[in-house]
UniProtKB/TrEMBL annotation:
Belongs to the BioY family. This is Biotin transporter. It comes from Roseitalea porphyridii. One of its GO terms (cellular component) is plasma membrane. Its main location: membrane. The keyword Membrane applies. The chain crosses the membrane at residues 20-40, 52-80, 95-118, 130-152, 172-189. It is found in: Cell membrane. GO terms for molecular function: biotin transmembrane transporter activity.
Length: 192
């Protein structure tokens, strides 16, 4: 069959199209973001009464920087890596680890990214109070999912005392910090 005269034969080794380049950039951002979350999980911040990690902060920043869809996809990619047994979680890996006490919190990381990403998609990055409110909602949903799952394993009273109460101040601090970082970053980018 002959090619129509206006059709071009594919050129192998040609420069990728704009769509392919965009996809490559998105994949690289998701990989980098998932690595950032994994690294943040290894950083323990001395916080009273229980040390905290920076995973929530990373998820909030990724959502705010990437937007809703890519932010949630990045966190889902991170969770998939852990489910496959890669050592990306703070204290273990695999599906059995995800079904343990931290499972609800891990799934809740997507809520953090979703809330921050939703706000970013609306242009709230430069509005610290609105971004803080969205990030706080994401953190509350994350803590609620974590509490609900942990309650099924150890009971509601113990789940509150061990899994939520000690982290309330640190989660509030992370939401304040993340919203402030985004406001500064957006302001800096606009001035350039």
């Amino acid at each position: 069959m002959a090619m129509p005269s206006n059709a071009q034969a594919p050129v192998y080794g040609a420069v990728p199209t704009e769509g392919v380049m965009r996809l490559v950039v998105l994949v690289l951002l998701a990989i980098g973001g998932s690595l950032l979350i994994a690294l943040a999980g290894q950083i323990k911040v001395p916080f009273y009464p229980v040390p905290a990690t920076l995973q929530t902060l990373a998820c909030l920043l990724i959502g705010a920087a990437f937007g809703l869809r890519l932010g949630v996809a990045t966190v889902a990619f991170y969770l998939a890596q852990g489910a496959l047994g890669l050592p990306v979680f703070t204290g273990g890996a695999g599906l059995a680890y995800m079904a343990g006490p931290t499972g609800g919190f891990l799934i809740g990381f997507m809520a953090c990214a979703a809330a921050a990403g939703w706000a970013a998609d609306r242009g709230w990055n430069a509005r610290p109070m609105l971004m803080f409110a969205a990030m706080l909602v994401g953190s509350i949903v994350m803590m609620t999912l974590g509490f609900a799952w942990l309650s099924t394993l150890i009971g509601a009273d113990k789940a509150w005392i061990a899994g939520v109460q000690p982290f309330l101040l640190s989660e509030l601090t992370k939401a304040v910090l993340a919203s402030g970082v985004m406001a500064v970053a957006v302001g800096w980018l606009r001035r350039r």
